[in-house]
Amino acid sequence: MTVTTIDTAPAAIPTGVARGRGGGGPAPTRIVVAYGFWIFILSDIVMFSALFAAYAVLSGNTAGGPSGRELFNLRNVFIETLCLLFSSYTCGLGMLSAERRQAGHFLIFAALTFGLGAAFLLIEISEFAGMVSRGAGPSRSAFLSSFFSLVGTHGAHVTAGLVWLVYMVGQVLAKGLRAAVLRRLACFSLFWHALDIVWIGVMTLVYLMGAP
Amino acid sequence: MDGSARLFGDRPPGVEQQESTANFLSYTVGLGLAILATIGSFVVSQTDLLWAPGIPVGLVVLAFAQIGVHLVFFLHLGSGPDNTNNILALAFGVFIVFLVIGGSCWIIANLHANMMAMPAQMLH
């Protein structure tokens, strides 16, 4: 009796249609996991928006100290941008090889992604160190406080991404490219691409508009 | 039991169904477009290609173009049914981001305009 009542209504829905709108049964785990992580990334971007707002408001308040025009080196910024862009590209190609279960290709692309991310981080750290040694540290002015919090938070995210990438390579080596590992890799690649999107904002608002 | 097997097309819920819109070509096209937008941003900001007061507008337009390229070619945010929820969440996120950044700039500019001129010794 109970079986028939459960069975009547949903059987009319054709299979494979309208997934993602609640019809046709639950979405695959791959889709659900990516959706959950996408919500996290959006909340992270909302946090960045507060730092962007602080920078936009405070960027003119140099308190007699150096302004962005005197501090920023656009050649370095261009190299940093290309590093992140190409690391996004190699990260995407790494995901493709992982989906095709080509572990060797995946490891090569992961190494390239790590190298480009680390190069970005080294340029950024040397830029920060140079500014601090010239007396333009985060305590100098409101402009520099907001600059270091915004760009530094992005750099901290890149650092976390590099640690995560090493951890994922360890998982691939230890467990192989099984479904659960592939889902974690998909989350990592979402994170890495999102960092590149945040960098577009940093590059445009902080560097290009700040050093005309 | 028999009903649910029919409902999911002999596929238990949660089991992977391998299909991916990503391929080598889409990543490469995305990389090319993103590099073009980046070079465009640097050219616009460093040369007088654009009328000077229009440079920030040009930079913002190029930044949004590049973000769009990243979303479509790298994050594969398309119009497929699997992406409906992702797009809705993105729309909400963009709404909040504009509220936070636009609202802050608006309010602080207003406060700044209404502020009394401060004597020089109060700044230190």
Describe the structure.
The complex is a heterodimer of chains A (212) and B (124). Chain A contains seven helices and no strands. Chain A has a single domain, classed as Cytochrome c oxidase, subunit III, four-helix bundle (Four Helix Bundle (Hemerythrin (Met), subunit A)), CATH 1.20.120.80. In chain A, helix 2 (29-58) runs parallel beside helix 7 (179-208) and helix 4 packs antiparallel against helix 5. Residues 1-14 of chain A have low confidence and may be disordered. Chain A is 76% helix and 0% strand. Chain A is mostly helical and 212 residues long. Chain A is elongated and about 60 Å long. Chain B is an all-alpha fold and 124 residues long. Chain B folds into two domains: 1-76, no CATH class; 82-124. Chain B is built from four helices and no strands. The model of chain B is unreliable at 1-10 (pLDDT under 50). Classes of the chains: A mainly alpha (212), B mainly alpha (124). Chains A and B meet through helix 1, helix 2, helix 4 and helix 7 of A and helix 1, helix 2, helix 3 and helix 4 of B.
Quick summary of this structure?
Chain A has 212 residues and is mostly helical. Chain A has 7 helices and no strands.
Main beta sheet strand tally, sense and closure of chain B: none
**Range of strand content of chain A:** under 5%
For the largest beta-sheet of chain A, the strand count, sense and barrel status come to: none
Q: Extract low-pLDDT stretches of chain A.
A: 1-14
**Mean pLDDT across all residues of chain B, rounded?**
81
Spell the H/E element sequence of chain B: HHHH
Count of domain modules of chain A: 1
Write the layout of secondary structure elements.
The complex is a heterodimer of chains A (212) and B (124).
Chain A: H1 2-8, H2 29-58, H3 68-71, H4 74-99, H5 103-133, H6 142-175, H7 179-208
Helix pairs in contact in A: 2-6, 2-7, 4-5, 4-7, 5-6, 6-7
Chain B: H1 2-7, H2 24-46, H3 55-74, H4 84-114
